[in-house]
Amino acid sequence: MRRLLLAGGIAASAVLGLAAVLGGVHLASTVPAPQLSLDAPAEIAAAPGTAPTVTAPSRGSMAIEAAPGERLASVAAEDVRPIGSVTKVMTALAVLSSHPLAPAEQGPLLTMTDADVKLFHDEIARDGSALPVHVGEQLSEHDLLLALLLPSANNAAETLAVWVSGSRQAFIASLNATAVTAGMSHTHFDDPSGFSSASVSTASDLLLLGRAALASPTIAAIVATAQASLSDGTVVHNRDTLLGIVPGWLGIKTGETPQAGACLLFAARRPPSDGLGGPPVTLIGAVLGQTVLGDAFDAARRAVDSAMAGYITVRPGALIPAKGAAVTAVWDVRAPAHVQVEVDPNAPAVLTLLRGTNLRLVTGRPPLRAPLRRGDEVGAILGWLGTQQVVAWTVRLDGDLPGPSLTWRLLYG
Description:
Strand order of the largest sheet: 1-15-16-20-19-18-2
Number of helices: 10
Distance between the termini: 40 Å
């Protein structure tokens, strides 16, 4: 009996020792991290409704986008067509690339020669647009850019081409090289003015040209000018008659030849019409192959008005990105959480969005460690428009989440 009792005591001691060891292991082991659960979709509607149908012309080509690069509508936008004097926008960009000029600067003076006077007479003879010049007259670079882009003087394009590149052929080659670099894969320039029917492009390619024009402060200022005086007192008028008439109209360039018909590269900038303070939208568009220039103006104006009608002011912080949130742990405890706007001084308080725009949501779940207290940050939801993060929400606990009990750790830890 004494032997049995001794054996039983030894066995009991062994069991208790094993239990103590296991308990120590459990107490010392890493507790599984609490997990955040969010009832959040992959995206939410940021601007309710559907985008309006942009009014398109019944003939020719059209493309219109919201900068930078959000296509809103297109009709035959990949058809290659003559573009007339819209070519002069690329000419102006090439001139400024070689001889940069701030908007307020006049730049170098060019003295008109017999060759420049001949260019004027040649343009008149072929019924092209031209700026009168005489031998010995001095015009600044800025003067010639005004003549190029406002009354659309073909002789100004030819004079600038030779001044920049030394020869007409070298300048045309530079125009085409620039078009390739800009991604205008269906564009070819045959002359600096666009009078040639072999100077061609597409409505889609011209959106790239329009973006480049607006990105140049000097060109943007010139094309938005209804009329200007050259340094010799000559007053020139912009052929884009929508300037000063259509709200927010930025101009860019008209074009009209018998082969091209009427063309217009245009831009407009307006805030949404709801009056709630949303930032303005910039639209860039191209209309090609219209019968007369008035048709091109009408088509562009209708496209802008119908597109602008689809934009509204949105406060991203007021959007609700999740229906519910909670933090749970394997030791059978749960704490509810709420989602609040994270105020970012660098993020916009309001956005201007096209109706039907969705906000992509990305959930951040950082590593959590119990115990957690009411108000602790346990996650985040980021709202993205394309590649831009526009809003962030913080997920915070509504109550305490204690760590595991001693009993749980002994049994399950």
